[in-house]
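Hi U.,

Before I forget, here's the chain from the pilot set. I'm dumping it here mostly so it's searchable later in email.
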Amino acid sequence: MPAPRWLWLCLLWVACSTPLPSEAPLGVGPLVAAERQARERADDAGAEADEPRAAAPPAEPPAPPEEQPAPTASAPIEDAGAAPPAADAGPPVKPGPVATVKWAGLYTGKDTSRFAFAGAAEQVEDDPNAKTRVADRADGGVDLIPISSSDGKDICTVQAKPKDPARKEFDIAPAQRCFEPDSGGMSGIVRSGTARFEGKKLVIDLVLDLEVTAGDMPLKGTLKYHFEGARP
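Structure:
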């Protein structure tokens, strides 16, 4: 028996409403999209971990150190209170040889004798013809020999030693005797004296302690003698 019309309509509706595969893909929900993005991020992170990291550019070599000046030994600090080192004086200087100047000869000129005795006035005697003979000694000294103007005899001999190597100034050694007692009863002992040579000139200054025998009472005094003369 033929089906009623509403039945056919129901069957047609059911056939049309049954799901069939669609040629166009359906959309995805927000949860699926979020899950996909998270998966993609994880995959990208793993890929980056698997890829070798790019080597860092080589560091520039360090600059060579600047050359420092070689250290110099600093002078030791001297103690202000310490005495400075003694300077090297070198080898000792040997005294030079005694000059070989020859003063020997006969010197003529004038002299002055000043006699002084206790209780008596000073007596002065000048001799314009005074003479003194000089002899050189082997030790560098000289012998001074005053000569009497009255008879030409030697009065006495006194020795003199040089003060310096040039042998121009001499000291007359004290305690030497002159004017022996047998020469008129008067004797003298040198107290001090000097002799000086200048070219051919000679100057003598001499002080003697005198003792004169006059009867039973000897007289004591001094004689200051000055001579100036020259040799030819």
